[in-house]
Design goal:
The chain has four helices and twelve strands. With 246 residues, it is an alpha+beta fold. The chain has one domain: Protein Transport Mog1p, Chain A. The protein is globular and about 50 Å long.
Amino acid sequence: MMSHTVGTAAAAAPRHFTMDLPDAWWTFDLDPGTRDASVRRYVEEQARGRPVGRALLDRVVRMAHGAVRDAAARRALRAAGLVMFLPEGSLLFATTVVTRVAPPADPSADLAELLLPVLRRNEHDGAHEDPGADRRVTRIATPVLPGLGPVGRVIGIEDVQLGCPDADCGLGESIPMALMHTVVPVPHSREFLVISSATPNLSLTEEFHELFAAIGGSLRFVPDPWRGQDDGTGADATESGGTDRV
């Protein structure tokens, strides 16, 4: 597993967090000047030595382009994905995107009440969904996770428009995706981090949901070491290199 520290930039809250991702996943390049070339290079590297036809390769590149551009449009704090071509010619594809959102100002609302509005804002903030999508949320819960406390979690299957909205790459087909959104309150703040993971591999929905839950549960807030700030979770935190600020 690889761990990465990025910024949350909240005034009286932890400014950084870490989150573990599987070693096989790649971190999205969100720079508009280099991201498209980076996506194609990565996908072609994964296809090398595999029985991957040009049509499948181009389709996966379009899917990855769409995921990366959506993450950039949503101002992702952290974004990564999996592209794995299997020997028999099948594909494993998944993404995880972390965004920061603020709920409506209502100090009396609890996490369950805030969960759906926060998710709606996050999903429609630059996401490219099929207007006629069949949205099938299957479960909403507020589990208590070690090191994080109560979080919101939405698990379901939605029809998602693949591809990207730009004229140079066109739109792909709408296909069902297994999704998991984990909503984590930022300590000492009214804001949330939303960890959104998705895969079109519905035959492996249970396995991917277990992986997505592990990814979301690995998030830890890191206080600024020079301030000695307590993140309020009771988790140990250490300074990490490669820190980004938002």
